Amino acid sequence: MHILRFSALVIYMTFTTSSMHAIAGTGEYNLDWRVDGEVLAYHTCGCADACWIAEVRHTTTNAIQSRLRCDCEKLYFSHPGLSNENIVSESCSSINENADKPDAIRQTIEYLLLQEISN
Fold it and tell me: Of 57, 44, 96, whose CA–CA distance to 74 is shortest?
């Protein structure tokens, strides 16, 4: 009897974990980023890929250099050490509806970094 309950629990946990992963979004992968010693990592967190996080990280330390994220509605940017997270747009549609979303993310981060440095 205990084996039957344990088997049922394992099957339940397998399906629950699979479902939760689907709800939570995709695994992380790298977008095009041409700065030596850095990587642009991206993953979604829900809302049919309208919730996502893109982070520029140092390749050896994994320290976050900058972060652009969408919470399904608003677009946020932060540059640790230089600025706290700020809303940069009330909508993420310019990125989410772009035919080349990865390139739009990269270009937006590059633009915002230039703005941060020039201020």
Answer: 96
**CA–CA separation, 103 and 32 (whole Å):** 8
- The runs of H, that is alpha helices, within 74-100 are 93-96
What is the rounded CA–CA span in Å between residue 21 and residue 92? Answer: 23
pLDDT at 25: 60
The pLDDT assigned to 118 comes to 78
Cβ proximity of 41 and 54 under 8 Å: yes
Count CB neighbours of 89 within 10 A.
Answer: 15
Query: Which one, of 90, 69, 65, 92, lies nearest residue 79 by Cα?
Result: 65
Name the CA radius of gyration of the chain, rounded.
18
Distance CA 116, CA 119 (A): 5
Residue-level length of the chain: 119
**Helix, strand, or coil (residue 37):** coil
Rounded to the nearest 5°, which phi and psi values hold at 51? -105, 120
Low-confidence ranges of the chain (pLDDT < 70): 1-26
